[in-house]
Design brief:
Blueprint (H helix, E strand, L loop, with lengths): L4 E3 L3 E2 L4 H6 L12 E2 L14 E2 L21 H5 L20 E9 L5 E6 L17 E5 L9 E9 L5 E12 L2 E13 L4 E9 L5 H9 L4 E9 L2 E11 L7
Parallel strand pairs: 2-3, 7-13
Antiparallel strand pairs: 1-11, 4-10, 5-6, 5-8, 8-11, 9-10, 9-12, 12-13
């Protein structure tokens, strides 16, 4: 299966795996340091952090069934086979004060920008937990979105006074009870009081015509869970629903 990959915006350069683990995305306030990490080889003896995870779990990482009150680990999330009915963490768990300021989607084949959402943020980065930040959103796309091969999703965010180590995003996409695809990206290390930009490359699932038709005819039954981890601890959980019909809603 073709591997999805993660790239940061900026110049391309060769890096070794140690540097990749230590610092994938760094951008200091008032300046930037961005690198591209495409094309890194992953063998069977190296944990696959970057891109699409096929669902394989190392033998020593096999975990028991999750129960309410148990810590939510990346391994539990990778094993999820259905859309969650509730949030698995609270806004207070975002102790790193991560604030998202922009989300852009573009078609890699044509370069067309499909979506560009910007949030007005203060010039000064404040170390305050935003308890009112939206954790649920509905997206409307045209049916042609389901025929795209690869898209790039650019994420801009700020970090508070605590550095992020092994900042990781796991996304699970579903249509009804069908798991469409799982994506697993490690964003890496982010310094305190920094502004950061990264672009994740998604290889969209190859859907059969009947599934595509059902997804178009049943808006908002296509859903996703986005889980954000720092040092393997869940700090944010966002949910989304998608519509692919012709009528653009206000």
């Amino acid at each position: 299966m073709e591997e999805d990959r993660e790239a940061t915006l900026g110049s391309e350069e060769e890096v070794d795996e140690a540097l990749y683990e230590e610092n994938m995305v760094q951008q200091g306030e008032g300046g930037s340091e961005e690198n591209s990490y495409e094309g890194m080889a992953v063998d069977d003896n190296v944990e696959e952090w970057n891109g699409f995870i096929s669902g394989r779990i190392k033998e020593e990482e096999v975990v028991s069934e999750w129960k309410p009150g148990d810590p939510v680990t990346p391994q539990h999330i990778l094993r999820l086979n259905s859309y969650t009915t509730e949030f698995l963490c609270s806004p207070e768990d975002n102790i790193y004060n991560i604030t998202f300021s922009r989300f852009k989607i573009r078609d890699l084949a044509s370069g067309t920008v499909i979506l560009d959402i910007k949030k007005q943020c203060p010039t000064e980065i404040k170390d305050v937990i935003d308890l009112d930040s939206g954790r649920f959103i509905q997206y409307h796309f045209s049916p042609t979105f389901l025929t795209l091969g690869e898209i790039g999703a650019t994420l801009e965010f700020t970090v508070g006074s605590k550095a992020l180590n092994r900042f990781r995003l796991i996304e699970k996409h579903f249509f009804r009870n069908l798991v469409l695809k799982t994506f697993d990206f490690e964003i890496g290390f982010c310094i305190p009081y920094s502004r950061n930009t990264c672009e994740h490359i998604y290889c969209l699932p190859d859907l059969d015509p009947q599934t595509i038709e059902e997804m178009i005819d049943n808006p908002y039954e296509t859903r996703s869970d986005s889980f954000y981890f720092v040092n393997n601890k869940l700090i944010m959980h966002h949910k989304a629903e998608y519509s692919f019909n012709q009528q653009v809603e206000a």
